Amino acid sequence: MAKSDKINFSTPSGFPEFLPSEKRLELYLLDTIRRVFESYGFTPIETPAVERLEVLQAKGNQGDNIIYGIDPILPPNRQAEKDKSGETGSEARALKFDQTVPLAAYIARHLNELTFPFARYQMDVVFRGERAKDGRFRQFRQCDIDVVARRELSLLYDAQMPAIITEIFEAINIGDFLIRINNRKVLTGFFKSLGIAENQIKFCINIVDTLEKIGENKVKSDLEKEGISAEQAEKIIEFIKIDGSVDEVLDKLKHLANLPETEQFSLGVTELETVITGVRNLGVAENRFCIDLSIARGLDYYTGTVYETTLLGHEALGSICSGGRYEELVGVFLGEKMPGVGISIGLTRLISRLLKAGILSTLAATPAQVMVVNMQDDLMPIYLKVSQQLRQAGINVITNFDKRPVGKQFQLADKQGIQFCVIIGSQEAAAQKSSLKDLKTGEQIEVLLENLAEQIKSRLT
User: Fold this and answer.
1) Where does residue 275 rank: exposed (0-12), middle (13-18), buried (19+ CB within 10 A)?
2) What is the per-residue pLDDT across 57-95, written as a single tens digit (0 to 9) for each?
3) pLDDT at 173
4) What is the 3-state secondary structure (H, E, C) of 151-211?
5) Per-residue pLDDT tens for 237-264?
6) Is 456 within 8 Å of 420 (Cβ atoms)?
7) Which helix (H) or strand (E) holds 224?
């Protein structure tokens, strides 16, 4: 191949690629998250990476997300098929940009095969055509749970979400975090009470949702540009800045019940109180959650409870887990009321942010805990037998098949984060013994082969 024909094999911008130590961290986190999800009875599903475009765009589901379309690329010898392969209308396909819209389509496809309320978890890769930058990707893994019911869904499912978030982040030990809870009905009802037109409420919610990013003055300015009066904008800012303990905020909201057109507002406050009571009954510590009236969640399909989780001391990382309740999303496909509630952890983004902040560390490049050193090729049958015995005892083992200086083999093990090396030469083999070297401490002891697994297990750190 000529130099000018050299292929650019670097990864496309925004499409991450993990080293083994990073991938092992991701798998550890996935296992931890999965255990918590399953402890609450959530069941796994997987939906295709590709959906029909009309599904992803149904009634505004796309939001502000840029969707990657799928077009077939034909080889040179099949160009005659090009006109036949064009996909338009219902045949147009695209990569999924989240898990919730595909879930709605999944339920519609399998309605008579599922039991409701249907509680599922999904840990798939999704694709968004946004500008790639530090901590933002075009391909990333999301860990989602949702509960969907037919006609009615208890608010206690909403209360369960903060309990699940708490268990996950306490299990992976990332430090102090705060789950901020609100209800979209509270916001929508308050905007209505100010006389804001129905067709302006969506915009107001979207602007309020950007408060932390753009600041109070810019929020006011953007509201006024949309035709919201300066007085209305000021009242909105005052409202979303209401703070205090959970009970103090609820009390302040109840005292606003005399606002005009407060039916939706009052319903939102009642739902919020019900959710908070459930969160407390599930044993979530008071310092793990709060009511934050600035939390709006920009996606159009949220209608009730909404959540965002912030890592305290690292607020610049943004939300590390978010979600909420929706009423009409599944009904878009079925024409019946199917309320749901769910949360999502953008795991790829989270790992990137936490590693950069020094909150998490990568794992060893290999899961192996032991390397069986190759002292001489004629002893390989013994090395293979010892390796298998250790594996059967639940120990992860690399057998070194390549003959090289012992020091080099120690360096190879140490570089991969392997703690122990098992050394068996002619004398050790004859005596049914081995030398066990701890690369962390430098200690080396003699161990009978029959006791080797027990010794390693007792020393693993």
Assistant:
1) buried
2) 987 777 778 999 998 888 888 877 765 555 544 589 999
3) 92
4) CCCCCHHHHHHHHHHHHHHHHCCCCCEEEEEEEHHHHHHHHHHCCCCHHHHHHHHHHHCCH
5) 899 899 999 999 999 999 887 777 778 9
6) yes
7) helix 216-225
Kindly state the DSSP code that residue 99 receives in the 8-state scheme.
S
Q: How far apart are CA 373 and CA 407, in angstroms?
A: 10
Q: Fill in the DSSP letter of residue 130.
A: P
Sequence-ordered list of residues with C-beta below 8 angstroms from that of 104, at least 6 positions apart, any chain:
329, 330, 332, 333
* pTM (global) more than 0.85: yes
Q: Residue written as tokens 């109180």?
A: 273
H/E stretch holding 380: helix 380-392
C-alpha span between 414 and 438 (Å, rounded): 10
| Residue located via tokens 């401490």 | 441
The more confidently predicted of residues 283 and 75 is 283
* Cα-based angle 371, 376, 382 (whole degrees, multiple of 5): 65
User: 251: which DSSP letter?
Assistant: H
Report the amino acid identity of residue 226.
Answer: E
* H or E element that contains 370: strand 370-372
Neighbours of 190 (CB within 10 A): 25
| Cα–Cα distance measured from residue 105 to residue 158, given in angstroms and rounded to the nearest whole number | 22
pLDDT tens across 224-239, in order? 887 888 888 888 889 9
As given in the structure block, the two tokens for residue 145 are 């749970």
Rounded to whole angstroms, what are the CA distances from 207 to 139, 194, 225, 235, 324? Answer: 26, 16, 11, 14, 18
Written as one letter, the residue type at 169 is F
For the stretch 8-43, pLDDT in tens is: 999 999 999 999 999 999 999 999 999 999 999 999
Report in angstroms the alpha-carbon separations of 222 from 64, 195, 340.
18, 18, 32
For the chain, the average pLDDT equals 91
Amino acid at 365: A
> Residue holding tokens 């402890």?
39
